[in-house]
Amino acid sequence: MVSCVRRSSLRRSRRRGGLARLPETPESASLVARSAMETLRKALIAGAVLGAGAGVGTALFVLVAPGEQQKQAMLKEMPEQDPQRRDEAARTKELLLASLQEAAATQENVAWRKNWMSGGGGKSA
């Protein structure tokens, strides 16, 4: 029963023009303009806050990032720049590739070897 009353009251208000059209008073127009201005204001504030955060982040990055001279000094101190270290790394890569080639050429499981760098001497599959 309650739903019937609600429907009939809505029908009456539509006939009178209550829901079908917006009231054309100056107060309603100012409310619409005011809500649009508030939305624009909120969007501008959000943009300003995001822009300020990005500015602070950029400034901190510039302050913390090393300069060109510091970068060059850091590169010189890296272990890969040492000739002995480079030779050792190259030798290790050569041994690893030789082991992989040997494993691909044979049916033996080279992972079972006690010394997998040398040939033979382990369980066979």
Low-confidence stretches: none
Share of residues in strands: under 5%
The level of helicity is: 55-70%
- Overall, the morphology is elongated
Structural class: mainly alpha
**H-E string:** HHHH
Number of strands: 0
Cα-to-Cα separation, first versus last residue: 86 Å
For the report, how would you describe the main beta sheet? Answer: none
Rg (CA only) = 39 Å
Report the mean per-residue pLDDT as an integer: 77
Helix count, DSSP H or I runs of 4 or more residues: 4
Write a structural description.
With 125 residues, this protein is mainly α. It is 70% helix and 0% strand. The N and C termini lie far apart (86 Å).
In short:
With 125 residues, this protein is mostly helical.
Task: Please specify the SSE layout and strand pairing.
Layout: H1 2-16, H2 26-64, H3 68-77, H4 83-105
Supply database-style keywords.
single chain
